[in-house]
Amino acid sequence: MRHAIRNGLIIKEEEASLPVTLRSMQYAYSVYEALKLKNGEFVHLKEHLFRLRESARGIGITLKYSDDEISSWLEALRGEDNLFNETFRILLVGKENILFITHDATRSYPDSYYMEGVDCTLYEGERFLPNYKTSNLLLSYLALDDAESKGAFEALFVNRYGYVTEGTRSNFYALRGNRLYTAPDKDVLLGVTRIGVTEAAKDMGVEIVYEPIYVKDIFDYDSLFISSTSMKAMPIRSINGKSVKRSMNTMVLRFSDYVGAWE
Amino acid sequence: MRHAIRNGLIIKEEEASLPVTLRSMQYAYSVYEALKLKNGEFVHLKEHLFRLRESARGIGITLKYSDDEISSWLEALRGEDNLFNETFRILLVGKENILFITHDATRSYPDSYYMEGVDCTLYEGERFLPNYKTSNLLLSYLALDDAESKGAFEALFVNRYGYVTEGTRSNFYALRGNRLYTAPDKDVLLGVTRIGVTEAAKDMGVEIVYEPIYVKDIFDYDSLFISSTSMKAMPIRSINGKSVKRSMNTMVLRFSDYVGAWE
């Protein structure tokens, strides 16, 4: 039987639920994190807990549990369900600080996604409070639903200025010559893997340019890719059904290896 | 003990809950309605069920229950808890069509709110898919929280073009001379009480103008007011702490009486 945590206590997973009469639930007034357990170790735990606290603060919630407390709850759940490789999800609901931890198998992707790249679609919209991981995810749901209905893997958001900010569950990058382009911090989720990608760029002597990547220019870059905790760095094959250049995909795979090792 | 409905079955209210592992719940992929039972009768039931179906359709959910079915569930819950005056909330979650009905006391407001008007604040932001009542309500929560922290009753949204669209749980209007101004339909919730207000205007020979009401002009109108199922038509006394003109508040109260009687 699978378990979960509610405010520090181990419960059965099916007991991890929220009343529909709860105002914080009705208003999607909550934040979350997803993090990996890899070979028995929580990956970038400190960074994820920092971002959880920041997301909470960003919507006016003071997270009242310490990093040590939350870490011990993750560890307790890991032990209870005897886990070694898994993805954990932390959900923090409302000013009342209801905190759930649940877990599920870590997603992995076929090699072809890396060798050939994945298909993406464009979706007009801007995530509300993009720096924070809030539960206000209807736009992301609709965008990903639209992508999947077209057989694509990920949807990329295009903002009111016509530039691509990020994917529904990934950050977005373009390569040209010796430069890595990605959206300015204020417009996107500050992905933990995005930190890894920029570290990799520094190590590889690639210049990082925080600049809008406009839709109108998107087919001019040498390679495009997305990143997330589960994807690492994954090349893009097409945008809205049209093939993109892939002349720097070897470098994308070096980024992927780097962030994989950096875990 | 208070009860609720889940997919047609009467349950205890505390059993009306959603698992935190449910994707539709994690993405706030749901829509809702709030409607009044007044003297034993559901008020504008048909309009509310129409809008529920429209909201669902707007985010890609086909509501699979008929109006007759949902009406019979409302009636069953009314009977079970022996209710006469109450507010009911219908929540429809995901493509899986999990439907909850819960209930709570109908809100009422002191006479002074009508005689003197209420204080409002301005909040920059645009509700995502404003025509639909979705659970993607974080913006509304933050705006109302901000208003309440300043001692105000309601927050009004200001969009990117600098005009006031609607409140967090109300529609917004301005009066000048013989004209009633309210935002174009595409930018706001198509409130059931808003329909009543426009009916009242027609009956009273007031011209309805669907036009932006800009923040920069807001102190030039003769009176301002908001409307909702619970508020009816409620005059505004101040915006961001600055008094507004109230020279047509008698007409606002006529609107309020009209929509009250129209129930």
What sequence of helices (H) and strands (E) makes up the elements of chain A? EEEHEEHHEEHEHEEEEHEEEEEH
Class from secondary-structure proportions of chain A: alpha+beta
Low-confidence stretches of chain A are none
Tally of distinct domains of chain A? 2
Gyration radius over CA of chain A: 19 Å
What's the CATH first level of the largest domain in chain A? Alpha Beta
Give me the CATH superfamily of the largest domain in chain A. Answer: D-amino Acid Aminotransferase, subunit A, domain 2
Q: N- to C-terminal separation of chain A?
A: 29 Å
Helix content of chain A: 25-40%
Largest inter-chain interface?
A: A-B, 35 and 35 residues
The major sheet of chain A is characterized as: 10 strands, mixed
Mean pLDDT of chain A: 97
Q: Number of DSSP strands of chain A?
A: 17
Oligomer: homodimer
Per CATH, what is the topology of the largest domain in chain A? D-amino Acid Aminotransferase, Chain A, domain 2
- Relative strand content of chain A: 25-35%
Specify the CATH architecture of the largest domain in chain A.
Answer: Alpha-Beta Barrel
What's the shape of chain A?
Answer: globular
In DSSP terms (H or I, runs of 4 or more residues), the helix count of chain A works out at 7
